[in-house]
Amino acid sequence: MPVDMNALFRDHGITIELSGDRGTGVPFSRALLDQLDLADLNAKSRQRIVPGDMLTAVLKRDENGAFETDAAGRPKRTGGYLKLGAENELTLMIPRADEPGEFTRVPAGNTRYAAAALIRMEREARHEVAANARAHAEAMQAYEAARGRGEPAEEPQLRVAKHDPEQFKRFSGFITAAEAVISAELGNPFATAEERRSELMASLSIRNEMRNTLTPEQVGLIAQAQSLKEQIARIAPDHPMAEQAIVAPYHGDGEALEEGVSRVTEAGAGRFRRGVMRGGPADALVPLLMATFTRTDPAAVQVAMISPAERRRFEQLMSRHENEEIAESIRPRVEGIMGARMPGYTCAVRFFAHQGVDYMMVNDIGGNFVYAAESEARTQELDVERLNRIPTEADVPTQERIEELRAALATLTFDNGAEVAFDYGDEPDEDVFEA
After folding, report:
1. Greatest pairwise CA separation for the chain in angstroms
2. DSSP label at 76?
3. How far does Cα 51 stand from its chain's mean position?
4. What pLDDT band is residue 428 in, cutting at 50, 70 and 90?
5. Which pLDDT value is given to residue 93?
6. For residue 434, what pLDDT is reported?
7. What stretches of 294-400 adopt beta strand conformation (E)?
8. Domain residue ranges of the chain, discontinuous segments joined by +
9. CA spacing 20 to 30 A to 198: which of 76, 139, 185, 314?
10. Count of H helices and E strands in the chain?
11. Which among 306, 314, 302, 322 is positioned nearest to 267, based on CA atoms?
12. Strand 348-354 relative to strand 357-364: parallel, antiparallel, unpaired?
């Protein structure tokens, strides 16, 4: 069926601003293209449309700021074509619910990060609507109670959220198109390693926002409850409120580690620094990735980004201490964690252990890194599914539950029910005086 271009923009267009001109844009996903006569679409747009492209229709103005008009005196809509992987002067215009006729501007020069912003804004809108509804319900209860007492009271009004969550459904095609850009760039033989790394980080940003369905306050409550459960488990493992940490923390003196990385550095096989750098989209990934091979705090892990020459010297120094079996157990863990957030992620992993120090070499699109930690802290068993699990609202504890956990922990610090041992530090019996 021939494509009705006006209907296409009406039914699938999103509000945009392009180089200062307002209009609509149709972002193309594979699903949308499958609904259309592609040959006719290409003929009418004079382009070869693929997923990740956008057709635009904007109201152009002349040099005096007036709309350009057609023969009938109507403002012209000028059609255009964008590759959403390219940087354009594109801004997404999100209608405001609290101020009709106004818009929130979302810069979309980098469409992948704009897609992540849309997901975040939709989540925030849902939370705001829910919070406003709760506040209104509480205010109505107070209002009805006041009326019941015969007191004068003004009926509370429901506060309107900044954005209507339903508005974001219109922009879902843009998010899908942005993901198509990522897939295309990752498979582009002309894309550099740096470009592919950038696309993987953009994918991580989008996946992080998709996975994150909770408010910061809810995330904080879950973390607080988990910490209390783990503290209870360390004092009284069999307590009904106890929950073992996924990876039990390791507290060593770090002496063997310092000596080990010094040997590697002196051999010219890598310059280590203490602590794995965190920040940006990958911030939350660091503890998960380090847990794949060590129970050491990421801030205490030693890390080196190594050059090809340093890698060869490292192999010369450590080749006879390589453990391929452990490497093969770690690699699926790393790819399982990364792949859930970066579809298509792969890596190579090698593992070495020498004089009380473990060295994990990971080579991926971000570079070749060696991570070092004490062998005593090595992760043996790891529940990747639990480590990778996305918390939901069902996991959010009430304040009452937090107080119960805190009270239980406080009680256990005085008496955890363990057997009392009167060994006095194994002092010899002759030191005990008898009457």
Report:
1. 120
2. P
3. 24
4. low
5. 98
6. 53
7. 302-305, 348-354, 357-364, 367-374
8. 1-213, 214-246+403-413, 253-382
9. 314
10. 13, 11
11. 314
12. antiparallel
